[in-house]
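User: Predict structure, ligand S-adenosylmethionine.
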Amino acid sequence: MGDHTAMQAGVEYAEAPINHAEDTQGFLHDVLEGLAQSPAMLSPKYFYDATGSRLFDRICKLPEYYLTRTEMAILERSAPAIADQLGPGVLLIEPGSGSCAKVGRLLRHLCAPAGYAPVEISGEHLHANLSHLRGAFPDLPITPVCADFTTPFSLPSDIPETRRRVVFFPGSTIGNFPPEAAVDLLRGFRGLLDDRGGLLLGVDRRKDPRILEAAYDDAAGVTAAFNRNLLVRMRDELGAEVNPAGFRHRALWNDECSRIEMHLVSRGRQTIRVGGRTHGFHDDEHIVTEYSYKYSAEGMQRLAAQAGFRVSAQWSDDREWFSVLWLTT
Ligand SMILES: C[S@@+](CC[C@H](N)C(=O)[O-])C[C@H]1O[C@@H](n2cnc3c(N)ncnc32)[C@H](O)[C@@H]1O
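Assistant: Predicted complex:
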């Protein structure tokens, strides 16, 4: 067993009891703080209970949502080259692993991988989705961690010993963090690595805003249900008095900030009561529920450099809609 204590850029990964991500007090605290802002803001991490995770899996299959298909195709095509870069005996740590649908593409090509540690806030969903991976890779040590990767969390003490720890962070999850927070998060991930490790990062690229807006506002309304699930969770878990149907879904491209913004827009005047406080909304007033930053080639380089990494290799699709970066220190 190795020493899994590391402190880097203010983020500590220590041997400690597993962090229970489904923390109602934390949810209530964040909701109260977020609703008090102008405009009101709620963190996208609260989309993901078991229902939200299932809705996200449906989004990944939608015709408009090019992200998953494109990144999967990059991994499929470039997995041998990626495996060459990563080297043998790798322990893959995947923050925000969701249903662990992408890692198999890599594992098939890695030389003697040491193990896989998915780290996910939506614990029920994580555990429900590991059986396919265990079936496909019966000899691979898999150590799931239910935790919020934006706060200090611990890796299990029985995690395999290796000198190559690689953080695999696909799905454009980095896009949910504003630039400074994205840099801080990646700096924090450095604390999980060792001298031969690195970070394999999936980044969504800037493109025609019509394609971007459609990807976050599908015709079947699945993304709308996913967005409103945040209000459903507030009602069911925090006892909030809120009518989720009283808010409509909106996805907007903000060119200046290079991001898609997801909003919940009030249909008429109404209130949300939660935690003993009342928040009034006028007609058309919105709550920001997610930012999804899209990167230019220069933006990706800047992000890597500011977080203390260099881009050692990168793979993209032919249209350059999505990139997978291999970042080393
Ligand atoms: C955009 S999805 C990507 C899922 C998967 N990695 C993929 O590439 O398809 C983001 C995932 O990260 C998880 N997640 C979001 N915020 C999180 C946090 N703060 N801590 C742990 N997991 C988080 C969500 O539950 C979800 O499964």
